[in-house]
Amino acid sequence: MKIVNTKIQGIEIVTQVDTDRAYGGIVRAAKGKLLEEFCKELVKMAWNELGGTAEDLSFPTQRVPISLKREYLEKIKSTEVKNWIINNYKDFIFHAQVDVHVFIQSEFALGIECKSYTENAMLKRILVDFTLLKTVYPNMNCALLQFESQLTGDYSQINKQIILGSHSTHILMLI
User: Fold this and answer.
1) Sign (positive or negative) of CA dihedral 32, 36, 41, 45
2) Are the CB atoms for 100 and 111 separated by under 8 Å?
3) N or C, where is the chain less crowded by C-beta within 10 Å?
4) Domain region containing 29
């Protein structure tokens, strides 16, 4: 709890000093960073419970470059557009990243997106990010850590023995 109080005091100091950003934006960003730190600590505790060593676990924050797939070119009907892409192929890079990258023995094992709350529009974006990352790291696992759920259905009813979810969220999960 001491760490949380220190972080909150730090947020208060930043809101008084940083006059270029809105108060709400500063608080939201700090809350996001705090959730990411909680997430990393949870991963460390779980890894420890599994008997893993701290040296095998890392959390690099690099962005993952994803190149344009050559198969995409076959779908383009315009010769001009296709040629432009071919001539500039090296520039077609998307840098993907989620909030927490968990590496075990230098292998990307788990990507975690951290949200204060999640609703289906946000979930779609999260799933796209994970899908892109899996083109480079097909064996990585993906997880969502959230403080509260705004997804429809019974996701927030953690005392239920079986959580059924919602129709729309289940459909999104087939990505």
Assistant:
1) positive
2) yes
3) N
4) 2-62+97-172
84 lies in some domain: no
pLDDT 10s digits, 36-82: 989 999 999 999 999 999 999 999 988 999 999 889 999 999 999 99
Measured in degrees and rounded to the nearest 5, phi and psi for residue 44 equal -60, -45
Provide the edge-to-edge strand list for the sheet that holds 100-104.
Answer: 57-58, 100-104, 107-118, 141-149
Q: Is residue 87 part of a domain?
A: no
Position 126 scores a pLDDT of 94
Determine the Cα–Cα distance for residues 121 and 118; give it in Å rounded to an integer.
8
C-alpha to C-alpha distance for 123 and 117, rounded to whole angstroms:
10
Q: Which pTM does this prediction carry?
A: 0.80
| Rounded to 5°, angle at Cα 131 from 128 and 134 | 150
